[in-house]
Amino acid sequence: MKTLFCGLWLLGSFLALAQPALKSAEQSLQQAGTAFYNLDGEKSLQLSHKALSQAYALKNDVLMSKAYNLIGLNIEEFYDPNKALKYYQKALEHAKLSQNDSVKIWVNNNLGNWYSYRKNDFQKSIPYYKEGLRNAEKINDWVEVMYAKLSIAGAYFGANRFQEGYVFLKSTEADVNRSKDDEPKLHYHSLLGSYYSHLGQYLKAEFHYEKAIELGEKNKDNLLDAYLIDVYNDFSDHYKKKGQFEKALHYLTLHKELKEKVYNDDRSKKAKIAGSQIEIDEYQRQIDKIEGEKTKQSKYLKESKLIVLLFVIILFILLLLLFSLYKNNAFREKTFTELKDAYAELQLAKEKAEEASQLKTQFVSTISHELRTPLYGVVGITNIILDEHKELAHSPHLNSLKFSARYLLSLVNDLLQINKIEENKITLEHMIFNIPDEISTIVDSLEFIAIKNNNKLQTELDTAIPEFLIGDKLRLSQVFMNLVSNALKFTKDGTVKVSAKLDRIEGSQYFIHFAVADTGVGIAPEDQKKIFEKFVQIERKEGDYQGTGLGLSIVQRLVELFGSTIELESELGKGTTFSFTMGFEADESKRNEILHNIDVDLSTVQVYRILVVEDNKINQVVTKKILETNHFKCTILDDGYAAIDALENEHYDIVLMDINMPIINGFETTKLIRKKGIQTPIIALTAFDKQEIMEQAISVGINDIIIKPFEPSKLFQVISNLIEQ
Ligand code: ADP
What we know:
- It is a single chain.
- By secondary structure, the protein is an alpha/beta fold.
- Among the domains are: 84 residues, Alpha Horseshoe (Serine Threonine Protein Phosphatase 5, Tetratricopeptide repeat), CATH 1.25.40; 171 residues, Histidine kinase-like ATPase, C-terminal domain (Heat Shock Protein 90), CATH 3.30.565.10; 116 residues, Response regulator (Rossmann fold, 3-Layer(aba) Sandwich).
- It is 68% helix and 10% strand.
- It has 25 helices and twelve strands.
- The strands form three sheets. It has a five-stranded mixed sheet, with helices on one face.
- Helix 5 runs antiparallel to helix 6, helix 11 packs antiparallel against helix 12 and helix 12 runs antiparallel to helix 13.
- The chain is rod-shaped and about 185 Å long.
- The chain starts with a helix and ends with a helix.
- It binds adenosine-5'-diphosphate (ADP).
- Adenosine-5'-diphosphate (ADP) binds next to helix 18 and helix 19.
- Keywords: Membrane, Phosphoprotein, Signal, TPR repeat, Transmembrane, Transmembrane helix.
- Pfam families: HATPase_c, HisKA, Response_reg, TPR_12, TPR_8.
């Protein structure tokens, strides 16, 4: 029944378009439509396939929709009805994109037909018909409106909803009457026939069926024949229902005959189609391919859009990176050049500083050595005087001289070692000493400065402090000498008080709190840190005092060597207090041990023969005096070669060897002595720093080193140790 209407939906109105490509596509479609009418499916498919390709090339949705629609009709009619649906759906898709209402009407109607006649699914077909109707009403096309309504009525009747269908059927009456075509009239009357037959109004039904048959038989169009087959059948059913079997048979016979005729045609059509089946398949594949390519293309298009976007983003980021890299590089290059210059400058400065430091170290070392030698004389001679004139033992002047000389000597030693102080290369000695004695010696030796500045110099000593402590009394004196002399220098008409107080006892350690307080000029807060730096002196208006600026830095380092820290409290115009707390051993057994060692050395009865190799005359006198006072037999020689001779010819228990001698030095002399196989212990007696010569001394075969000036007890201890060995 549907075939009747197909033509309407497929040909529509072709616009005469100017563009040749478009025109050619339109022509293909028109020819395809005609071929479909003539049941030439092969040709129709060929042409609609061509039209589809052209439509894709033109990107024309209207043409695409029309081509798909026609392909759908061909497939449905001549190939496989089931496969037609997807082409109608494609057609609808493009129709919607095209905004062309006529195309939408045709496609919706074909879809409605497909569901109605192929699937008997009226629930699904009605919405498509109604959509077609909506579009037809939109463009005020009364013919399309009429066909759509007839289709809807048919579908409702098919679904047994006669009343709903009748409303649509009734509304077409006027249009059917004014239409010049037989098709709508035939459709209209056959539907009315069904309707009245259903209601049991048989006369009315028969009237309309007859009208429909009259129209069908009058028109010799093939397409109407197909419709007429159904009308005969329906009419036969009608009479059967009524019980008029004769009439029923009559119409059934007509139905069969016509069907036979159409069926035969159909067969020839089928045969024709069968021959082209393979080709149809081929078209099918080609159509699929076009479809596939289209999907691929749109996918590719999407992908390439994404790629372009990504590329742009990456390019942008790269540009940014490049820019920042460039900036960075420029900056780095600039910084690098600056750094290189600065480095070169620094390198130069470093080299200069190293050179200067080297020179300074060398200078200090040489000067110290040169100072030590005469100082050894001063200290030695003072000792000799004291020895020879026992009545002078209590002379404060002589004691001050001795003390000052010793202080000067240790200062020289510290100067020599000031570069090594940071490395803590000074090792503290362990000596027995008495704090009141040490302090009063310092106070006595500085009394003359006190008098000069009209200062009172007081001491305050805690009686709880043990009598004998063990520690480096020389370094402690050095600290006090610096602090007290500073206090006296920077105070006028005031008081300087030196105090020592037992702070606490921890095991065998006695912690003594020492303080040097004055009522002098004071130190400004901003200067209080600076004064501990080397060679720093604070400017003073009426400052006329002597000093090196080294005192406090030595004090600070020495106090730290003792494991303590120096504290400073000062107020400008009011005075200054330096204080620190140090721990000393007061172990009785240790004290006895030390005393015993010295006792042994000093009270030895045996007479040892000592060979002294020394070029300095004063030092010869001093050393000889020390040794002889302590019962050693002493031979003095002033040059190395003479010493070698003496050792070859005579026996000596010990050799005291000066290092710095003009003709052959102490190292060379020792080397020659050892070469001759003489094993007499050799003690280097030198003003050099111990660390400086240690390595060389050991390598040439020297047994021990004693630095001048020395405590006699220390020398005796070393001598007795070596002899015992
Ligand atoms: P010097 O005494 O040789 O100048 P110091 O290192 O001992 O060097 O002292 C550094 C500076 O600290 C002194 O120049 C002085 O300005 C200040 N100073 C040290 N002790 C005192 C003090 N008791 N009262 C005031 N100023 C002091």
